[in-house]
Amino acid sequence: MRIFFVGSTPLVCGILLLARLAFAQYDPASDRAERFAWPDGRRVALSLTFDDARRSQPDAGIPLLERHGLKATFYVSPRGLAPRLDAWKAAVAAGHEIGNHSLTHPCTGNYAFSRENALEDYTLERMALDVDEASRGIEHLLGVRAVSFAYPCGQSFVGRGLDVRSYVPLIARSFRTGRGWLGESANDPWICDMSQLQGVESDGKSFEELRALIEEAAKEGRWLILAGHEMADTGPQATSLETLDALARYVLDPANGIWVDTVVAVAEYVLEQRGSSPGTERR
């Protein structure tokens, strides 16, 4: 690589030094000055999350998690709770977190299923009504206030063209966390925006693939949020029960140094740690 020096040498050197420091922050091989301290010396945090209140979740997935003593976060719409309401109430009583996934699940109209409920046709006011109504419905049905949110389809905009607006600030005002979808990496606990947490897909992945994601996150002491839908061995958008069972055994082995908890539990711990560290912010 050739470097062309333009202007004063001190200025160029300064720019190169800043670039080197910025790269080192995300280089797993670099010695970070202050590695994030997870509880009990764990190497990485992991949250298991599932969307849409699919029937396979209370029927098969949650019982599997309960057998292993693991807790997960389930992002739901009120209408999805009704067919298995008693099972969802039992999940709440067992300590699983219930998050808000909007009332009507609006997504881009480029998806056929949401063409009549497209984010392109929404305003911030309409989105606020949708989200608030979902929170009221969840509290009415389950007796809990949702403090975590998952963006439907991982999309956080409303409107078109010059009128496009982000509804991330709306979620930041109403919830402790907002989780995306199809994220590319685990979250850096020192700098992640709690209203824009990355969720990495678990559907269709083998145990070996999920283990690789965890180990990659552990290299930098990150927080990996896995995001799935069905908890079943067959079908589209499914995190298989076989994979979940193998994953549970792996993450519960103390030798692997993995802290598994709900999104809100990990978020509160991260904010507490950031708040007690000089130069960090709570949001």
Protein model, in words:
With 283 residues, this protein is an alpha/beta fold. The chain has one domain (33-275): TIM Barrel (Alpha-Beta Barrel), CATH 3.20.20. It has nine helices and ten strands. Helix 2 packs parallel to helix 8.
Number of helices: 9
Radius of gyration, Cα only, in angstroms?
21 Å
Instruction: List the domain count as a whole number.
Output: 1
* Percentage of residues in strands: 5-15%
The CATH architecture classification is: Alpha-Beta Barrel
Shape: globular
Indicate the CATH class: Alpha Beta
**CA-CA gap between termini:** 39 Å
Counted beta strands: 10
The helix-strand sequence is HEHEHHEHEEEHEEHEHEH
Supply the CATH superfamily name.
Glycoside hydrolase/deacetylase
Protein topology:
Elements: H1 9-25, E1 44-51, H2 56-68, E2 73-76, H3 78-81, H4 85-93, E3 97-100, H5 124-142, E4 148-150, E5 157-158, E6 165-166, H6 168-174, E7 177-179, E8 200-201, H7 207-219, E9 223-228, H8 241-251, E10 258-260, H9 263-275
Parallel strand pairs: 1-2, 1-9, 1-10, 2-3, 4-7, 8-9
Antiparallel strand pairs: 5-6
Helix pairs in contact: 2-8
What is this structure, in a nutshell?
The chain has 283 residues and is of the alpha/beta class. The N terminus and C terminus are likely disordered. Helix content is 37%, strand content 13%.
